[in-house]
Amino acid sequence: MKKAIVVGATSGIGRELALLLVRNNYLVGVTGRRESRLKDLQSAHAANIKISCFDVADTAGVAEKLDRLADQLGGCDLLILSSGVGELNPELKFEIEKDTIDVNVAGFTAVADWTFRYFEKQREGHFAAITSIAGLRGSRHAPAYYATKAYQINYLEGLRQRTKYLKMPVHITDIRPGFVDTEMAQEEGRFWVATAKKAAIQIKSAIDKRKPVVYVSRRWRSIAGVLKVVPGWIYQHI
Ligand SMILES: NC(=O)c1ccc[n+]([C@@H]2O[C@H](COP(=O)([O-])OP(=O)(O)OC[C@H]3O[C@@H](n4cnc5c(N)ncnc54)[C@H](OP(=O)(O)O)[C@@H]3O)[C@@H](O)[C@H]2O)c1
Question: What is the SS3 assignment for the chain?
Answer without folding.
Answer: CCEEEEECCCCHHHHHHHHHHHHCCCEEEEEECCHHHHHHHHHHCCCCEEEEECCCCCHHHHHHHHHHHHHHHCCCCEEEECCCCCCCCCCCCHHHHHHHHHHHHHHHHHHHHHHHHHHHHHCCEEEEEECCHHHHCCCCCCHHHHHHHHHHHHHHHHHHHHHHHCCCCEEEEEEEECCEECCCCCCCCCCCCEEHHHHHHHHHHHHHCCCCEEEECCCHHHHHHHHHHCCHHHHCCC
